[in-house]
């Protein structure tokens, strides 16, 4: 709190017990499950549990609506010092002493990070958000001309020029009429051929060139990769690949391309539009 002084000590845990501290990144689904349990934990006999299996594991959270069942969330473990060499975090605990004084304890330096994996409902939420964003973009930038519309077949009369009248600019070229339907078909065909070219490229290059355009959350990145074709093996390898080529924001979970990776970006990448190439 503001305008308050605290006493700070390190390592108040002195009873011989070993305490491990982690930086935990939850998904929206996992956070809602924790909040639901905390609100009604007195009515549930089960308790939350966490299990580590090497660099992976899972968290079980009881469900107040089903007291005998628990939701399970998988996670993977990563080293903060390796992923973010710029600095480190300390775990601080606030407590009230027997005399009523408020103190802060440093329980230790956070070396490892637990990242909860997205579940199906997380992907569904991201899919809905992307679909809504695409629909808003389309409504602002495109006008669809429907066959059989109100102006179809309407006759327009042109008045013939008077005899002897000449064009003010004789050398001006007449504009060639454009067949809108044909132009749309050609544009769609070229987009399909570009997508098929991207699907044949190495998975690492595809991820690298998407992140070069803008930051992505993992769920958004998976949905974007699926448009050009995504195998189960590629999906399983994504977490490890992101640790190699991207920096993940602890604030909002977005992945940005590491500065040293931009040297591998190709301007003539088949999945890039002319606007993307300018970026």
Automatic annotation (TrEMBL):
GO molecular function (one) = translation elongation factor activity
InterPro entries, per the entry: E3_ELL-like, ELL/occludin, ELL_N, WH_DNA-bd_sf
Q: Which GO terms describe its biological process?
A: transcription elongation by RNA polymerase II
A GO cellular component annotated for this chain's UniProt record is:
transcription elongation factor complex
Q: Which residues form the RNA polymerase II elongation factor ELL N-terminal domain?
A: 2-279
- What are the protein's UniProt keywords? Elongation factor, Protein biosynthesis
Q: Look up keyword rRNA processing and say if it applies.
A: no
Organism domain of life? Eukaryota
UniProt keyword Cell inner membrane, yes or no: no
Name of the protein this chain belongs to? RNA polymerase II elongation factor ELL
This protein's species is Macaca mulatta
């Amino acid at each position: 709190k503001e305008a308050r002084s605290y006493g700070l000590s390190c390592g108040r845990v002195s009873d011989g017990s070993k305490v491990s501290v982690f930086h935990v990144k939850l998904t929206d689904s996992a956070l809602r499950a924790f909040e639901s349990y905390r609100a009604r934990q007195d009515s549930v006999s089960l308790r939350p549990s966490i299990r580590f299996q090497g660099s992976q594991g899972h968290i079980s959270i009881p469900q107040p609506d089903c007291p005998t069942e628990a939701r399970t969330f998988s996670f993977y473990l990563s080293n903060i010092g390796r992923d973010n060499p710029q600095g480190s975090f300390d775990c601080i605990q606030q407590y009230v002493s027997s005399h009523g004084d408020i103190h802060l304890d440093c329980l230790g330096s956070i070396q490892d990070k637990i990242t909860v994996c997205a579940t199906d409902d997380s992907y569904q939420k991201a899919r809905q958000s992307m679909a809504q964003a695409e629909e808003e973009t389309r409504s602002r930038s495109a006008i669809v001309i429907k066959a059989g519309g109100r102006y179809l077949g309407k006759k327009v009369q042109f008045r013939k020029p008077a005899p002897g009248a000449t064009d003010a600019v004789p050398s001006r070229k007449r504009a060639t009429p454009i067949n809108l339907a044909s132009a749309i078909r050609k544009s769609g065909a070229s987009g399909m051929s570009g997508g098929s070219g991207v699907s044949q490229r190495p998975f690492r290059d595809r991820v690298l060139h998407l992140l070069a355009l803008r930051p992505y959350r993992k769920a958004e990145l998976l949905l974007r990769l699926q448009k050009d074709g995504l195998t189960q093996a590629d999906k399983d390898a994504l977490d490890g690949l992101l640790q190699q080529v991207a920096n993940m924001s602890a604030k909002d979970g977005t992945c940005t391309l590491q500065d040293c990776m931009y040297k591998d970006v190709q301007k003539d990448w088949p999945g890039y539009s002319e606007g993307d190439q300018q970026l």
